[in-house]
C-alpha cells in the first residue's frame, strides 16, 4: 500500500477539544471503518478531554490517545483508581515515526509528575505492541464454544436461597439489576471495573448497525422474588442444520452473586429454544463453567491475553495492592521509558498491606517493567516468567516467594473493552 509522504511535519501535542477531533484519525487507523452513530455518541460522552492527547501537524490531528479515569478492583482491595488508555491510533500517513511512543511517554510522565493513578491499563489490538512500553499481559480470557452434544452439567448447586425463576428483559430495562449484580459478583475479582452511568449503558448498548446479522441483545435475569441474583447478556444468530434449528447463542456477559444463580443461568443458556452452539468469547480463565460442564473438552477452551497493565510508579503500584503471603523481596527493575522506576525496590508484603521503598540492598529478582505489569493484577506467575527467562532469580527461593505472594484467586479478568 502506498501512502503519500507528509510534508516533513513538526508535531505538536495537546488535549482534544472533544471527540470530533478523534473521529477522522480513528477511522483512518482502523482501515476506514466508521463506527455507528450510537457508538460515536457514547465515545463522545465517555471521552475525558483533559486526560486525553492528540498529536497534530499543521493544526490537524494525526494521532490520538484517550485517557479514562477508571476504578478497578486490585488484588485484595476494592476498586482503586487506574488510568485506562484507549483509542491509541495514528493516521496511516504518520505511522512509525514514534507518535504512539510519544503519546504514551507523555501520558505516563504526567501521571508520575502529578502523582495521579499509579497503574495504567489497556486492551491491545495486537499482543506485540505494548510490552516495549512496560505493559504486561495482566489478565487472560478463555473463549468457549459449547456444542449441542455437550450441554450436560455435572452439578446444579441448589444453594440456601429461595428458588430461582427466569426473566428475559431488554438490557436497557435491566441496568439497575446488572449494576447491583456486578457490584456483588465481581467485588473480589481483580481487573473488574466499577461501571456506572455511561460505562454501564455502553455495555448494555445494542445499536442495530453493530449486530452483524445477529438478533437483538437480550438479558436473562435469575430472580428469587426479592432480588436479582444474576444476569446474562446474549443474542442469537439464526442457523439451520439439516432442517434442525441450530441458532448460535453468543454470550456477551454472565455474572451471578452465588453458585446457584450462576449454574441456573448457564443451564438456561444451554437450553435456549432453537439453540445450537453456545459461544462465550471472553470468560475468566478460572470460570466455574469449566468445572460445571461434564465435557469441557468439547467446548475447546482457548486462552488469550486480555488486559495489559503497567506500574506507573513501582512503589505506589506495589504498595497499593494486597498479597497472598508475607514476603520480603528486593526487585531490580529496568524501565527506560519511565526512568524514575529504574533501580532496586524493597517490597515487604503482609496481611496488613505492603510497603515498597528504594533500597541499595542486593537484589533478589531482576525484571523489566513489562514483567512487573504481568504480575500486577495477580494473574501472571513469577515462576512462569522465570522459566521463560524473563525474570532472573538472584537469591535462591525468591521466585517461589514472589509467585506465592503475588498470585490472586480468583484470577484477574476484565469484561469491559475501553
Ligand atoms: C490501547 C489501544 O488503543 S490498542 C489500539 C492500537 N491501535 C491500532 O491497532 C490501530 C491501527 N494502528 C495504529 O494506529 C498504529 O499503527 C499504532 C498506534 C499501533 C502504532 O503507532 P505508530 O506511531 O506507528 O507507532 P510508533 O512509531 O510510536 O512505534 C513505536 C514502536 O512500536 C512498534 N509498533 C508499532 N505498531 C506495532 C504493531 N502493530 N505491532 C508491533 N509493533 C508495533 C514500532 O515498530 C516501534 O518499535 P520500536 O520500539 O522497535 O521502535
TrEMBL record:
CDD domains: NAT_SF (cd04301). It holds the Pfam family Acetyltransf_9. The active site is at residues 130, 418. Keywords: Acyltransferase, Transferase. Acetyl-CoA binds at residues 88-90, 96-101, 125-126. It comes from the Bacteria. Residues 9-154 form the N-acetyltransferase domain. HAMAP family: Eis. Homohexamer; trimer of dimers. Belongs to the acetyltransferase Eis family. This is GNAT family N-acetyltransferase. It comes from Streptomyces olivaceiscleroticus.
Amino acid at each position: 500500500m502506498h501512502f503519500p509522504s507528509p510534508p516533513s511535519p513538526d508535531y505538536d501535542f495537546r488535549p482534544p477539544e472533544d471527540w470530533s477531533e478523534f473521529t477522522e484519525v480513528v477511522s483512518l487507523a482502523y482501515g476506514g471503518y466508521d463506527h455507528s452513530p450510537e457508538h460515536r455518541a457514547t465515545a463522545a460522552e465517555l471521552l475525558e478531554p483533559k486526560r486525553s492527547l492528540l498529536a497534530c501537524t499543521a493544526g490537524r490531528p494525526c494521532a490520538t490517545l484517550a485517557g479514562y479515569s477508571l476504578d478497578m478492583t486490585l488484588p485484595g482491595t476494592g476498586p482503586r483508581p487506574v488510568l485506562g488508555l484507549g483509542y491509541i491510533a495514528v493516521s496511516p500517513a504518520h505511522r512509525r515515526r514514534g507518535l504512539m511512543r510519544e503519546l504514551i511517554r507523555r501520558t505516563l510522565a504526567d501521571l508520575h509528575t502529578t502523582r495521579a493513578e499509579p497503574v495504567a491499563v489497556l486492551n491491545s489490538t495486537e499482543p506485540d505492541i505494548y510490552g516495549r512500553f512496560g505493559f504486561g499481559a495482566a489478565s487472560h480470557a478463555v473463549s468457549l464454544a459449547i456444542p449441542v452434544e455437550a450441554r450436560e452439567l455435572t452439578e446444579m448447586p441448589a444453594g440456601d436461597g429461595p428458588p430461582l425463576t427466569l426473566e428475559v428483559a431488554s438490557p436497557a430495562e435491566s441496568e439497575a439489576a446488572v449494576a447491583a449484580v456486578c457490584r456483588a459478583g465481581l467485588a473480589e475479582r481483580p481487573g473488574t471495573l466499577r461501571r456506572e452511568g455511561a460505562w454501564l449503558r455502553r455495555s448494555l448498548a445494542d445499536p442495530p448497525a453493530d449486530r452483524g446479522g445477529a438478533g437483538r441483545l437480550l438479558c436473562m435475569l435469575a430472580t428469587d422474588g426479592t432480588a436479582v441474583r444474576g444476569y446474562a447478556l446474549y443474542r442469537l444468530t439464526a442457523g439451520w442444520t439439516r432442517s434442525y434449528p441450530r441458532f448460535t447463542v453468543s454470550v456477551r456477559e454472565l455474572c451471578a452473586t452465588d453458585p446457584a444463580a450462576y449454574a441456573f443461568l448457564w443451564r438456561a443458556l444451554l437450553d435456549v429454544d432453537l439453540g445450537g452452539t453456545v459461544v462465550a468469547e471472553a470468560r475468566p480463565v478460572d470460570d466455574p463453567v469449566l468445572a460445571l460442564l461434564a465435557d469441557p473438552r468439547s467446548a475447546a477452551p482457548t486462552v488469550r491475553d486480555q488486559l495489559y497493565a503497567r506500574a506507573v510508579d513501582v512503589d505506589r503500584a506495589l504498595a497499593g495492592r494486597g498479597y497472598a503471603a508475607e514476603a520480603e523481596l528486593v526487585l531490580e527493575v529496568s524501565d527506560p521509558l519511565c526512568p524514575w522506576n529504574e533501580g532496586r525496590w524493597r517490597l515487604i508484603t503482609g496481611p496488613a498491606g505492603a510497603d515498597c521503598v528504594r533500597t541499595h540492598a542486593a537484589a533478589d529478582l531482576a525484571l523489566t517493567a513489562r514483567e512487573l505489569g504481568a504480575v500486577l493484577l495477580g494473574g501472571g506467575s513469577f515462576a512462569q516468567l522465570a522459566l521463560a527467562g524473563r525474570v532472573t532469580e538472584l537469591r535462591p527461593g525468591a521466585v517461589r516467594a514472589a509467585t506465592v505472594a503475588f498470585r490472586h484467586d480468583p484470577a484477574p479478568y476484565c469484561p469491559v473493552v475501553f
